[in-house]
Amino acid sequence: MLKGLRTSIVMFLLVFTSCSSTINNEEELLHWLGDMDNGFVKKNRANGFLLSMKYLPPEYLAINEMKKDSNDNMKDLNQYISEFKNSRTFLLTISNDDQSMNAGNYDVANMAEYGARIRDLSFNIKEILTLKTTSGKKYKPVLTTMENSYEIVNKRSIYMVFSDDEKEIMDSEQLDVVFEDTFLDTGINHFVFESKKINNLPNLNFN
Amino acid sequence: MKIINKVHLLFTIVVILLSAYLFLQQRNVKKIAVVNAQLVLEKYDGFKEAQDLYEIKTKEMSETFEKQKRAYESKSNELEIIKKKLSKSELEVKKGELEILRAKTAQLGKAIENKAKVQEEELLQGVYNKVNDYVKRYAEANNIDLIEGVTGSGNILYASDRIDITEIIIEGLNKEYVEGIKD
User: Fold this and answer.
1) Res. A17 pLDDT band, cuts 50 70 90
2) Do B126 and A186 touch (CB under 8 A)?
């Protein structure tokens, strides 16, 4: 009798703790996305650099887009989400233990080299970024942009979007984003995401 | 009875002092470990992938050079065949053209060689930095004061298996290469 009751309580807790996972505001969403246990962030380290790759789900991108449009009607959220649901967007953030060092000025001797580095990070970085699916197919990003930090912080952030017509990227069980670093001496960096994790964002209940 | 109590007290004090001494001794003992650096590189997936990538890149460059070399050889053979039919001035022009092509081919070979060397250094530097970073974090996490890298031509003649952490390092590096680091 007692054993049966205990099983029922455990089952109740299991079911309700997994189903009651709801995100109520943007702050909670950011916190949830940043929690490494949820599988949306993968990190690598070498040569004093910390490379953090974050998967940005369509929901997050949609909310950002709504803010840009000054639209706070959450009934429009699904419409915005639909614009992003056929692609995968990631954000690569590069920082260094040394506060004066960043991806823009590492191993740079003069202004000309600095300009070339910024151009590389802004426009040529797609040549060294690849997304590998479970079947081994490789894709280059269809879009990359470097966020302008105005040298305020020692971080550089690069957005990248991967998309294909065959839905291979969307259907792949694993997504391995490979950064073949040629600037910072951190080598080949793999960021492997499990689709079952990144497709499992809790319900958003923004009011 | 009193004597027994005194002996007991004395014994307890001795045990406490001895424990404290051993504790302090233990704290002062420096932890040392050794790693077979060559084996780590050989078994590290990051090194294997860097090698594969280097081979792909050099193969592409090598094909470009071979194409240019074949063009030079073809022109050279062609000149051998037709040179008897050419006037002296025509032969001089053809020889000049061939010399320019030879110089260009040699220049391309040199440029490719330099580029391949730079790429090899870049790829290896990335691998070394990854290994060094992991070893440093491993040492800090396990309170190791010194990790010696054993190489074939190094100066460590003997190290006990008890302080050899090569396999642990390889396993950790390969796991981290796929899964990334934990916060």
Assistant:
1) very low
2) yes
CA dihedral (B131, B134, B139, B140) positive or negative: positive
Question: For residue B76, what is the enclosing H or E element?
Answer: helix B45-82
Query: Class assignment of domain B31-179?
Result: alpha beta
Quickly list DSSP for A6-74: HHHHHHHHHHHHHHT-EE-SHHHHHHHHH-GGGTSEEEEEETTEEEEEEEE-HHHHHHHHHHHTT---G
**Which amino acid does the sequence have at B109?**
G
Q: Which residue of B has its CA nearest to A182?
A: B122
Residues of B in contact with A36 (CB under 8 A): 182-183
Cα within 13 Å of Cα(A41), Cβ side = 16
Taking CA atoms, A198 is separated from A36, A88, A192, B81, B99, in Å, by: 11, 10, 11, 68, 61
Q: Give the separation between CA A165 and CA A199, rounded to whole angstroms.
A: 19
Predicted structure pTM score: 0.81
| Side-chain half-sphere exposure of B39, counting CA atoms within 13 A | 14
Q: How close does chain A come to B124, measured CA to CA in Å?
A: 8
Residue A125 DSSP symbol = G
Strands A88-96 and A156-162: antiparallel
Q: What is the ipTM of this complex?
A: 0.79
Residue B94 neighbours by CB under 8 Å, 6+ apart = B79, B83, B86
Average pLDDT over residues B166-173: 97
Neighbours of A44 (CB within 10 A): 24
Interval A119-169: pLDDT, tens: 999 889 999 999 999 999 999 999 999 987 666 678 899 999 999 998 999
Using an 8 Å CB-CB cutoff, list chain B residues near A45: 133, 137, 181
Task: Supply B88's token pair.
Answer: 């002296």
Answer whether A15 touches B (CB < 8 Å): no
Residue the block writes with tokens 């990335």: B126
CB B182 within 8 A of CB A36: yes
Q: What secondary structure does DSSP assign to B19-52, as a single string? A: HHHHHHHHHHSPPEEEEEHHHHHHH-HHHHHHHH
